[in-house]
Structures are given as C-alpha cells and as structure tokens.
Amino acid sequence: MYEDLKGKTALVAGAARRRGLGFAIARALARQGAAVCLADRDAEVLERARELEAEGAVACGVVADIRSDGATETLRATFAARHPRLDILILCVGRMHGQGRVAELSPEAWQETQEVNLFGAFRMLHAFLPLMRDKGGSVIALASGAGKRPLPGFSGYSVSKAGLIMLLKCVAVEYAACGVRANAICPGPVESDMVEERIAAEAASAGVPPDERRAALCRGIPLGRMATADDIAAAALFLASDASAYITGQALNLSGGMITEL
Question: This protein's superkingdom (predicted)?
C-alpha cells in the first residue's frame, strides 16, 4: 500500500507483547518492506523479532529499559552499529500505574508513570533525533484519548499522555527545518492487554463482572466497538509514509467517535 516505506529503517520502542500495539505496528511496517528494530525492556522482544524474521522480514530485537539514560544510549549505539540511518521512530512505551483519585495515589506510583510514559519518550527523542535530522524522518508516539480528556481514576496516566502530546508538538516545530515530522496517535479503548487490565481494575472497583464493565465501555463508543491493534497500525503506516508528508504536530484521534474535538 505504501511503496515509499520499502527499504526504510524503523525503530519501534515497546514491542514485546504479542497483543501489543508496538508489535502490531512493527509487523505492519515489516510487511511494507521496512527493516524493523524492536526494543523493549522485556526479553520477549527477541522472540517477537524472530517471529517477523520467520515471515521474511528484516528485523532485530534489542532488550533495553528506557527508564535508564545508560540503557537508552546503549540502544542508540546498538542500533547505529546495525543501521546507517533511522527513518521512522515509533514510541509505544506506556504503563497505567496506580488507580484512584489524585489525593489517594502514592507519589511514587504517580512519578513512575511519568518516568515511563513521558520521560522515557524524552530519553528516546534525545538519543535518536540526531540520527534523523540530517535526512529527515517520521516520529510517531502512541499517546491516548486520556491525554485530551481526563480518565477518572488514572490522573498519572492522563497527565503523562497530555505531556507526551505536547512533547511531540515541540519536536514537530523544532525539527521541521530538518525534515522531521512528529505526530501522536490518540486511541480510545483498544483490544489489548493494557485495556484488559484497566477493565479488570475498574470492574473490581465497581464490584461488577469484567464483561459487564467491558460492555458498558463499548456502549460509550459511537462505532460500537473497541479499536483493534490493526486499526492503530494502519494509522501509524499512514503517518510514517509520504502520504502524510504535509502532516506534522498533530494528535490524531482514533477513538471510534468518542473524541471528536482536536
């Protein structure tokens, strides 16, 4: 579908979970002919890379924890040793840590969410933007609809994703002259492990079965269903490709109609 992606090199951070968005995006890029490097702190990322290789893709896996400056710099060095350039940077690292109203959360849980979701993205940008600014490229971060509308009971997550959206807008403005585009994808509920964990937590808090909470969640989506990982991957392909060459600094809603404002 996107011929210009063939031969491009992509790094996808947060790609260890088989049902995760990062792996879905990595697989979609690989099927378009891009060489893909998958990174994650979970060693299962190595198995995900082998799965793509088994499909005929050019892929590799690297274990790295972006909460560490040293690990991020090592990831950069490892990547640069294998690939002469970086065309596409996908930031798909996130966690939903701590549930409760603001005054009920521990400062440690709140800070940990910022450390992973926001500061981790900053570390990756700090390390990898220099590999893109000479020839340009596309940066795509998985933010969330919660970064635009507060998700009750998950303030740390909501604030971190709002910050991530602004961080990508800053990159878009600061690196436009270098040919680098930066955009965020803001999904609503997605069929994924993270959303399943959220549903379970909310169901337990409300004292209802998870299936009941899931049904209520879907009733609030105008299109009547949660997104799939492939829905998100399709948007990422578009933003990575030349089809979106004049789009930068945007936060694209993929919420099935739950969020219609910018």
Answer: Bacteria
